[in-house]
Design goal:
heterotrimer, A mainly alpha (about 625), B mainly alpha (about 100), C mainly alpha (about 180), A: about 625 residues, mainly alpha, two-stranded antiparallel ribbon, about 5% strand, B: about 100 residues, Helix Hairpins, 3 helices
Chain lengths: ~625, ~100, ~180
């Protein structure tokens, strides 16, 4: 089966081509079926491949030579091992659920077939990203998902704010992509290859005479790419704005899959990062800072999707924390559980928005639980999972992250535990405001409240089940020595040196995080039972305005650039370039006005000039030049 | 007999041709001066052919003659046409053509 | 001075003086006659240089065909010294000066050149028709063929240019005929 790996990205590509070329003619239902079926087919193939990989198979399948120049050879090849097969399952599995969800959610939209084309293109690019056997194929997928993200954020392009949000995401991503590109070129320059196996082989035998700083530089450049894609400080502001897109898009791209591409890349390059301790420090601290900052902002947001967006940023920060500790498998574990519960939460919020007729402000909600029981329960499960309540999936992965930080860097651990605290608080604040209490919206909205159709609830239920049981693939060491996921991944990801904690310490850490999660969940619930929305003051106002980061960027980057370009436009463009171009034209015209007079029509004069010129050329040629 | 003598002779003929082309206004005379220049070149080629014992340059003389003959045919036709139009072969009258 | 050199000097003086005659004589007919004399002198040089075939061709083609064409045209136009246009003294002077300068420049260049060699007086067979024919049809077949095309086009061109133009007094088309 493993040699048929190309089928996995092929199906979504076909779906994209069919829907993309026929989006004017294909009926909506058919478009949805084509989109969903193609991803389902990929999922089936991925599942079969996963079982083969589980039995120890791994392979590099070369489709054709992509770039062949001198000693450089970059094939279009797919690498199938434990890491990529896990991601395959996450992408196609959750992708399929979200496609099914979208068939109902987007049914009223006239661009539904186009939407599915984009979504399929996204799945294709994402699969390319995780399947690539070298950095170049990964980069192709990397750019592809960036493009799809842009297209889908600005899907309702008639709204100016939405399309500028898309632009913002694209530009921010480009900044990161430049880092990735530079890192890639550094690898090519220093090691002469982009293929993982060759590159890591050279790293492993350690014969390559490369200075340590080179490892750090490559690692940092790649990390800059990850910062852009995975919305870390300082490039995180695009992700909350990206919620302008349709909600299933937020669930698929901006929560479950695309934003974890950075984590995937660093986990894939684990051998490189193990050699670059300074870069790992930067990764860890960036993750910690992002987790904390985003969590503080999420506390004071009123837009249901904005809260989830900031919580995504915060959770991504957790993953980078784990990466920074060299605990790559832990990060991948959290990617997986986070994909389950965050997709669930987004889809739940989509269900809420759907029933509220497009209203996203939690101040206008409340008491929705009575009308939509399935959504309420699944959303609650998602909240429990993300808050880290014991026995839900998020608990296991988050606890593992915190344990790894505790072992290596106590200050990052402190930041992590505070962020986890805030996570529990704001998630239950969101839940309480949305589903309990009295309804605060208009009468008309209240009249329309209803449970969503089954195409929406079934994915919710499935994701809820996964959110509950997803954590049991990675039970902590104190319960069992047999960490399924990390053993599975060990064939393709090499964790850094981690100090092993004693069982007592680990029990203590589990106790602390469980206590924090439960306590702050309850606090979040209690504190928002009787909400009164007074305008925020002081620190709360700063938090509501997202620490004024957007304004800061506006002041230090956007406006100076605008001024610079206005200056360049006025002086360099208009006066310099235009002046030069027009000046050339004018001087030629002026000169030809004068030169015209030389054309007398006297043939004798022409001959005379010719002879004169000939003489001069002869003289020059013979006496000065020759 | 040094080759320089022939070089001198053909340069002299060539320069006389040029002088004629510059001095005269009669288009036919100018034409003849051009023929003179061509012949000067031919003479040079033949002299070098003798110097290097190589037949190729004599072949080039043939080609020059061919081209000259073709040129004369067309050129004289043009001059006849011009004479028919303006009843003169004075090249200074040719600037009327631009009107 | 042997016979070769005597002949060389005679022919050289003849060529240059008759060439001067071409450009100095006022009557075009005299110019043509002088040019023919020049060509004969040059043909004599060809003989001296063992290019017998070329000498014959030169006389036939240049002195015979081309110059007769010139004469024919001149007589057709009835040109003579009276109608011969003359340039002003100044222009003539300028022409002589510039031509002389060119001559001097080339001569000066020649002085520095590395072309050196003496022409042997003994006869060789390079210029014989057999040798030339072999060279022409072995190495220069393609240019030879192309020159035939050139001739054809020159012939057609001369006829097209020389024939009487169609008169322009065709009845004008009235606009409403379309």
């Amino acid at each position: 089966m493993i040699q048929f790996i190309y089928l996995v990205p092929l199906f979504p590509l076909l779906g994209f081509l069919i829907n993309g070329f026929g989006w004017r003619t294909i009926p909506k239902n058919l478009g949805g079926i084509i989109g969903s079926t193609s991803v389902l087919a990929s999922f089936v193939v991925s599942l079969l491949i996963f079982f083969e990989v589980k039995n120890g198979a791994n392979a590099t399948v070369t489709l054709f030579d992509f770039i062949q120049s001198g000693k450089l050879s970059i094939p279009l090849a797919f690498r199938i091992d434990s890491l990529s097969s896990i991601f395959l399952l996450i992408i196609t599995g959750i992708g399929f659920l979200i496609h099914v969800y979208s068939t109902s959610y987007m049914h009223e939209d006239e661009g539904m077939v186009k939407y599915f084309a984009y979504l399929n293109l996204f799945v294709f690019s994402m699969l390319l990203l995780v399947l690539g056997a070298n950095y170049l194929v990964m980069y192709m997928g990397w750019e592809g998902v960036g493009l799809c993200s842009y297209l889908l954020i600005g899907f309702w392009y008639k709204n100016n704010d939405f399309s500028s949000a898309g632009r913002k995401a694209f530009v921010m991503n480009r900044i990161g992509d430049l880092g990735f590109l530079v890192g890639m070129l550094l690898i090519l320059f220093n090691f002469g290859t982009l293929t993982y196996t060759d590159f890591f082989g050279q790293l492993n035998n350690g014969l390559e005479p490369v200075r340590n700083s080179v490892y750090n530089w490559i690692a940092i450049c790649l990390f800059i790419g990850a910062v852009g894609k995975s919305a870390q400080i300082p490039l995180f502001t695009w992700l909350p704005d990206a919620m302008a897109g349709p909600t299933p898009v937020s669930a698929l791209i901006h929560a479950a899959t695309m934003v974890t591409a950075g984590v995937y890349m660093i986990a894939r390059s684990s051998l490189l990062y193990n050699l670059a301790p300074n870069a790992l420090q930067i990764v860890g601290w960036t993750g910690a800072a992002t987790a904390f900052l985003a969590a503080t902002i999420a506390i004071k947001q009123y837009d249901i999707k904005k809260v989830l967006a900031y919580s995504t940023v915060s959770q991504l920060g957790f993953m980078f924390m784990a990466l920074g500790m060299g605990a790559y498998t832990t990060a991948v574990f959290h990617v997986m559980t986070h994909a389950f519960f965050k997709a669930l939460l987004f889809l739940g919020s989509g269900s809420v928005i759907h029933t509220m007729g497009g209203e996203q402000d939690v101040r206008k909600m409340g008491g929705l639980g009575k009308h939509m029981r399935t959504t309420q329960i699944t959303f609650l499960i998602g909240c429990l999972a993300i808050a880290g309540i014991p026995f839900f999936s998020g608990f296991f992965s988050k606890d593992e992250i915190l344990a790894s930080t505790f072992a290596q860097n106590k200050s990052i651990y402190a930041i992590g535990i505070v962020s986890a605290m805030m996570t529990a608080f704001y998630m239950f604040r969101l839940y309480t405001l949305t589903f309990t209490g009295k309804f605060r919206g208009t009468h008309e909205q209240e009249h329309h409240l209803h449970e969503s159709p089954s195409a929406i609830t079934i994915p919710l239920v499935l994701l809820a089940v996964l959110s509950v049981i997803g954590g049991y693939v990675g039970l902590p060491a104190v319960i069992t020595e047999h960490h399924t996921l990390s053993q599975f991944l060990s064939s393709s990801v090499t964790n850094g040196l981690t100090e092993h904690l004693t069982h007592n310490t680990e029990w203590m850490l589990i106790g602390i995080s469980s206590f924090v999660a439960i306590a702050f969940s309850i606090y979040g619930y209690m504190a928002n039972r009787q909400p009164n929305f007074v305008p925020n003051t002081g620190l709360a106002k700063v938090l509501e305005n997202k620490w004024y980061v957007d304004e800061l960027y506006d002041a230090i980057v956007v406006r100076p650039i605008n001024q610079l370009s206005a200056f360049l436009d006025r002086f360099v463009e208009r006066m310099g370039i235009d002046g030069f171009v027009n000046g050339v034209g004018k001087s030629v015209r002026w000169g030809s006005d004068r030169m015209r007079l030389l054309q007398t029509g006297q043939v004798g004069f022409y001959i005379f000039i010719m002879v004169l010129g000939m003489t001069i050329l002869f003289a020059l040629g013979f006496f000065w030049i020759g | 007999m040094p080759i320089q003598y022939y070089l001198f002779l053909s340069f002299a003929l060539f320069s006389i041709g040029i002088m004629g082309a510059l001095m005269r206004r009669n288009a036919i005379i100018i034409f003849m001066c051009i023929e003179l220049m061509l012949n000067a070149v031919n003479l040079l080629l033949v002299a070098f052919s003798k110097l290097y014992n190589d037949a190729s340059s004599q072949i080039f003389v043939f080609f020059i003659m061919v081209v000259a003959a073709a040129e004369v045919a067309v050129g004289l036709a043009v001059i006849v046409m011009m004479y028919r139009r303006v009843h003169s072969v004075d090249i200074n009258i040719l600037n009327r053509l631009k009107h | 001075m042997d016979l070769f050199e005597i002949l060389f000097w005679i022919l050289t003086i003849g060529a240059i003086s008759s060439a001067l005659g071409v450009i100095l004589s006022r009557n075009p007919i005299n110019s043509v006659i002088c040019l023919i004399a020049t060509f004969f002198a040059i043909s004599g040089h060809y003989v001296l240089l063992n290019a017998q075939f070329l000498a014959v061709v030169n006389i036939i083609v240049y002195a015979g065909a081309i110059m007769v064409l010139f004469l024919f045209v001149i007589m057709l136009m009835n040109l003579n010294a009276d109608v011969e246009p003359q340039k002003s003294r100044l222009v003539q002077f300028a022409g002589i000066i510039s031509g002389g300068i060119l001559f001097l420049v080339i001569l000066a260049a020649l002085r520095d050149s590395k072309i050196n060699g003496t022409l042997e007086k003994s006869a060789n067979s390079v210029g014989l028709i057999e040798n030339l024919g072999k060279t022409l049809f072995q190495n220069y077949v393609l240019p030879f063929e192309i020159s035939s095309v050139l001739f054809l086009s020159a012939m057609i061109g001369a006829m097209v240019i020389g024939k009487k133009e169609p008169s322009n007094d065709l009845p004008e088309r009235s606009p409403n005929q379309n």
